[in-house]
């Protein structure tokens, strides 16, 4: 989940 | 999504619009580093592979497609447009991009959140974005004649990075699970690279002088 969080940015 | 993130994205978008306008309206890419633009295209290609397997929001998908298409268009104009390519400062724009790409790739292999192909490419894109502006900054130092559009382009890019830092600070306090030190460090480095440029930009602006960067 820690990695998924950053992937919502561009 | 918070206001800083949205403002950051919009500034990023505006920087690209300014650059495309400059190229299309003046039929010239003088003062723009093709190496920086090609690295941005590579950054987007590596980072937005997730278009194929994950969906965050319509906003994210549309923005990703815009960034991919617009950066590809810029590279296309600079490399292949009959008129525009003649204005490219080939002899000045000599920064060795492998010196940036190879270390970023090695770093992404060593320091990442998960050792998978897409995660490593994503991490690589974060590292590379942090330093991709360097050829542009070097080119601006060499060509003492920086036009307004080029200056504004870099200013908008720097502002976008600054706003993203505010976005992370905001998320740090509002989203307990948001702890992205890898993104933070790269982002801080990236914003620091603009520090010098900002300093001289506002110095020249205050004294109504044309923007020049000391060599």
From TrEMBL, chain B:
Its Gene Ontology molecular function terms? ER retention sequence binding
Q: What species is given as this protein's source?
A: Auxenochlorella protothecoides
Q: List the GO cellular component terms.
A: endoplasmic reticulum membrane
The family database entries (InterPro entries) matched by this protein are listed as: ER_ret_rcpt (IPR000133)
Question: Member of which family?
Answer: Belongs to the ERD2 family.
Protein name, as recorded: ER lumen protein-retaining receptor
State the compartments where it is located: Endoplasmic reticulum membrane
Q: What is its main location?
A: endoplasmic reticulum
Sorted keywords for this record are:
Endoplasmic reticulum, ER-Golgi transport, Membrane, Protein transport, Receptor, Transmembrane, Transmembrane helix, Transport
Query: Which Gene Ontology terms describe the biological processes this protein takes part in?
Result: protein retention in ER lumen; protein transport; vesicle-mediated transport
The transmembrane segments are: 51-77, 97-115, 121-140, 152-170, 182-202
Membrane topology, record value? Multi-pass membrane protein
């Amino acid at each position: 989940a820690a990695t998924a969080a950053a992937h919502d940015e561009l | 999504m918070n206001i800083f993130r949205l403002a950051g994205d919009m500034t990023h978008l505006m920087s690209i619009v300014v650059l495309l306008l400059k190229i299309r309206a003046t039929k010239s890419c003088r003062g723009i580093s093709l190496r920086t633009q090609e690295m941005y295209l590579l950054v987007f290609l590596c980072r937005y592979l997730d278009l194929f397997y994950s969906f965050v929001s319509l906003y994210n998908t549309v923005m990703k497609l815009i960034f991919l298409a617009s950066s590809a268009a810029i590279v296309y104009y600079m490399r292949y447009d009959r008129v525009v390519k003649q204005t490219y400062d080939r002899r000045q724009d000599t920064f060795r991009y492998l010196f940036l790409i190879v270390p970023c790739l090695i770093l992404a292999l060593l320091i990442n959140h998960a050792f998978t192909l897409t995660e490593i490419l994503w991490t690589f894109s974060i590292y590379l974005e942090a330093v991709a502006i360097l050829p542009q900054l070097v080119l601006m130092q060499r060509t003492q004649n920086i036009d307004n559009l080029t200056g504004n382009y870099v200013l908008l890019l720097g502002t976008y990075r600054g706003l993203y830092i505010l976005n992370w600070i905001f998320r740090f306090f509002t989203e307990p699970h948001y702890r992205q030190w890898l993104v933070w460090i790269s982002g801080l480095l990236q914003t620091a690279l603009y520090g010098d440029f900002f300093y001289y930009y506002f110095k020249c602006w205050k004294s109504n002088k044309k923007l020049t960067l000391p060599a």
